[in-house]
Amino acid sequence: MAEQQWNAEIYRRDGAFVARLGASLVDLLAVVPDERILDLGCGDGTLTATLRDRGARVLGLDASEAMVAAARGRGLEAVCCPADSMDFDATFDAVFSNAALHWMRDPDAVAARVFQALRPGGRFVAEFGGEGNVASVRGALADAYARRPELGPYPDPWYFPSMTGYRAVLERAGFALHSIERIERPTPLPSGVGDWLRLFADHALRELPVHMAGGIIAEVEEALAPRLRGADGIWTMDYVRLRLVATRPEARS
Ligand code: BEZ
Predict the structure, then answer these.
(1) Which CATH class name applies to 8-138+158-189+236-247?
(2) Cα–Cα distance for residue pair 166/18, rounded to 1 Å
(3) Which atom of ligand 1 is nearest to the CA of 18?
(4) 3-class DSSP state of 82
(5) Which of 103, 134, 239 has most ligand 1 atoms within 8 Å of its beta carbon, as the pocket-test mutant?
(6) Are strands 176-188 and 236-247 parallel, antiparallel or unpaired?
(7) Which residue has the higher pLDDT, 16 or 229?
(8) CA-CA distance, 71 to 208, in Å (whole number)?
(9) How far apart are CA 80 and CA 86, in angstroms?
(10) Are 126 and 47 in contact (CB under 8 A)?
(11) How far apart are CA 9 and CA 15, in angstroms?
(12) Over the stretch 128-163, which tens digit does the pLDDT of each residue have?
């Protein structure tokens, strides 16, 4: 499978809604001035900057060089590192993550690293795609691949767990879970599903000949229009979120 690559400029144009939808997660985090926060999967740093503006000492972390460069371009401190190999030791009062954990395919390793990064009593506040997220697109992409057997099976890079499944991940890592909820959030797209695919399904399209990638996008659009495109022409994606608050328990004396 090709690795997903990000273009920070296109993300700013077509992906700005991701940070807008994460604004209430920042409220849930309730930043305490001067506390140390890790923004896990910080992307271009839009919400990292919000955390800073609310008084946190914040570090962004992302696996994409392009996104880290964009975050640094805002004057933020940011490092490029896959979450499952970060190595902080009780460094942060909180770990925050919006719309990023579903890109990380080894949830147990990530949860263990987050746990390790938090001081005892520190909190993990996160939202990401849950079971059923973008099911329409996943199905249509798999169908388009199936019509081209020479491509092999559709390379699905996303991890969208159930609440039960992710609760178990957190428990295995040692977290105390305070809340977890599944939220159905139909999300209007600023442009169509074609632009969404070019931005978020780059892993499935980039290495294909241009005419084939274009053919797949056209087929997905045609298959999904009856379900996702309104009479006004606006596309609404079938987003489903998991939103959670967990803490690293205080050390026992
Ligand atoms: C999401 O935020 O749910 C998402 C984004 C890109 C690809 C798949 C899901």
Answers:
(1) alpha beta
(2) 21
(3) 2
(4) coil
(5) 134
(6) antiparallel
(7) 229
(8) 30
(9) 9
(10) no
(11) 9
(12) 999 999 999 999 999 999 999 999 998 888 999 999
- Hey, what are 225's tokens? 């229009």
Number of H helices, E strands in the chain: 11, 7
Question: Within 84-201, where are the H helices?
Answer: 107-117, 135-146, 163-173, 193-200
Sequence-distant (6+) residues with CB within 8 A of 167 are 177, 180
* Mutation to probe ligand 1, out of 158, 193, 220, 238 (largest number of atoms < 8 A from CB): 158
Kindly state if the Cβ of 158 falls inside 6 Å of ligand 1: yes
Q: With a cut of 90, say whether residue 10 has pLDDT above it.
A: no
Ligand 1 geometric centre to CA of 239 (Å)? 8
The token pair at 227 is: 């379900």
Angle at the Cα of 59 (from 242 to 11), degrees rounded to 5? 60
Query: For all residues of the chain together, what is the average pLDDT?
Result: 94
